[in-house]
Amino acid sequence: MEKFTFFYRSHSPFSQWYPSDFVVDGLAFNCAEQYMMFKKAQLFGDEEAARKIMLATTPREQKARGRSVRGFDQSLWDENCRQFVYDGNYAKFTQNPNLLKYLLKTKGTTLVEASPTDTIWGVGLAESDARINSRRSWRGTNWLGEILTNLREDILQKEELSS
């Protein structure tokens, strides 16, 4: 039977909003949400939005500025957003050893964003909802959980190869 590690809200190290400093291509980010929104602005060529996202200090503000990206195209976003989230979280976890320990402790489980309202990045169910214990009952795709699970497995595989 599949085992799950549920998470939700910014107090979880698995949240996009969890405070975590990391650097990618010489740019400093304060959370994975900022990276994701910055990459969104870059993808659509909105340099003004990208600059504002980098100046924003909270994930709420970063997300709001990401929602205002000009030239947004849903299909192009869908083709790219999961890779952006993977890359941002790779940097987040590999540059923060304490966060990496949390991620590696979930070995043997599938990470699940237990968001009752998010059916794209989460499963559309709260952790307290009994339906969350079966994939067949999920109302959402769990993209964030799947990305984090794959990231963990990739990191574990690299560790095995290097030892």
From TrEMBL:
Pfam families in the record: NADAR (PF08719)
Chloroplast in keyword set: no
Superkingdom assignment: Bacteria
Ribonucleoprotein is among the record's keywords: no
Domain NADAR: residue ranges: 6-155
InterPro entries: NADAR, YbiA-like_sf
GO molecular function: hydrolase activity
Keywords (A to Z) from UniProt: Hydrolase
Catalytic activity: 2,5-diamino-6-hydroxy-4-(5-phosphoribosylamino)-pyrimidine + H2O = 2,5,6-triamino-4-hydroxypyrimidine + D-ribose 5-phosphate; 5-amino-6-(5-phospho-D-ribosylamino)uracil + H2O = 5,6-diaminouracil + D-ribose 5-phosphate
Protein name (database record): GTP cyclohydrolase
Organism: Paenibacillus kribbensis
